[in-house]
Structure formats: C-alpha cells, structure tokens
Write a structure and sequence with these properties.
By secondary structure, the chain is mainly α. The chain has one domain (about 1-240). It is built from 8 helices and 4 strands.
C-alpha cells in the first residue's frame, strides 16, 4: 500500500471533488475539471488585465498579453496567410489553454490535465471535425482531391489514396498522443528522480541537480507542446482552405 501511495503515477489520478450522478452517469466535478476552470480563469484574467487599460508604455501584464497575441497572430499569418485571420480565436484559445494548463502542472500539488488522453483527444477531435467541415464547406466534393497527391500517375492512386486517407484520419490521434505522452512522461520522470533525493541523503544532491535541470526542460517542453498543437492546427486549416 505504501508503494502505491508514493507511485509516480499517483499524480495523474482523477479524483471527484463534487460527486454528481444523473441517471447512473457519473458527472462528478473532478480535480481535472477544477484545473481546467483555473486555466480558463487565468487566461481570461490575463487578457482582461493586459488589454483593459492599455498604455503607451506597456506594463508587465500588458506586455505578456500583447506578446501572446502577436505570437499567435504571426503564427497564423506565416502558416495560413491573411485568410486565416478569422480562425484566430480558435487557435489563440487552444494555444493559451494548453500553455497555461501545462504551466500549472509544473507547480507542486497541482494537476496536469493535459497529461490525460481524454482531454487532449477531445481537443484534437474538435480540431479534426472543424477542419473537415471547413474543407467541405469551402470546396464541396473537390475536398476529396486532398487525398490524391498532385502529379501522381493514375496507376498509383489505388496505393497512395488509402495511405493518404489513413494519414488524414490519424491526425487527431497523433495530435492528442503527442501532447499527452510528453506531459505524462516528463512529469513521471520528475517524480521518480525527486523520490531519490530524500532516500540518498547527502548524495541526494545529484538527483536534485537532475530534477532542477529537468524542471527547466519541462517548462520549455510545456511551451513547445502548446506551440506544436497550435501550429499543426494551423497547417490543417491551411490544407482545408488551399488543399494541395
């Protein structure tokens, strides 16, 4: 029991905070839901405080808000072009939600909701469905040409079209697994190394140094994973708008 209590995977357990059951369906408010709400509130407060009273000389909060806005705006401009501006709210929301969620998870005794495949797959599924609908609305039946690589002989179509279809439908899987796996693996490794610090006594300074360095790396990965999710979403939107 003691081993289970101190398991590195214990930090990923979803625990109900407010039990709610309706018709046999468990709709409990969990620690995962709590930190999702915290992430949304923090992003809302950041943008409200940063953009509410804009000054000629921006303060720290305004600078952070403007940097986040410009970063996502430039990302969309470089990957999708001017036509992608209308999708800024979606990309910005995803980027900030994932980024803040990842950063919250770096604080001891918190919960990293992005380390659960159910959360990351839900976001990836929304992106996949929205992009697919966008493609059909924009191009109609011509959207199917996305599965035919340009310049490929017709004789090669029976081989390449199934590959393109499988690749397309694997997008939400790869998008969600990439984020969830990186956060899960990084936090697990941190927990394992941190467990050696008190156990080794004076020699624990060695794993402590690794934990410190790995924490810095995890913060970088937290940002990179939010960036990767956002840029892949932009690329998928670009495919839907411009096909090949």
């Amino acid at each position: 029991m003691a081993a289970e209590k101190h398991s590195p995977l214990e930090q990923f357990l979803i625990k109900p905070l407010i039990p709610i059951k309706i018709g046999g369906v468990d709709l409990s408010f969990t620690n995962s839901a709590l930190f999702m709400v915290v992430a949304v509130v923090l992003v809302a407060l950041l943008m409200t405080a940063g953009m509410g009273k804009r000054g000629l000389v921006p303060g720290r909060i305004q600078s952070i808000a403007e940097m986040a806005y410009e970063f996502v705006a430039n990302l969309i401009k470089e990957t999708v072009g001017a036509e992608g501006r209308k999708y800024f709210p979606l990309i910005f929301t995803l980027f900030m939600f994932i980024l803040v969620g990842n950063m919250i998870g770096m604080i001891p005794s918190t919960f990293t909701f992005t380390s659960h495949i159910a959360v990351t797959f839900a976001m990836a599924a929304v992106v996949f469905v929205a992009v697919t609908i966008l493609g059909f609305v924009k191009h109609g039946a011509h959207f199917f040409s996305l599965f035919v690589p340009p310049g490929v002989p017709i004789a090669m179509w029976p081989l390449l079209i199934p590959i393109e279809i499988i690749s397309y439908f694997s997008r939400p899987i790869s998008l969600s697994v990439r984020l969830f796996a990186n956060m899960l693996a990084g936090h697990t490794l941190l927990k394992v190394l941190a467990g050696f610090v008190p156990a080794l006594g004076v020699a624990g300074i060695i794993p402590l140094a690794f934990v410190t360095a790995l924490t810095g790396l995890e913060i970088l990965i937290a940002f990179l994973q939010a960036y990767v999710f956002a840029i892949l979403t932009c690329l998928y939107i670009n495919d839907a708008l411009h096909l090949h």
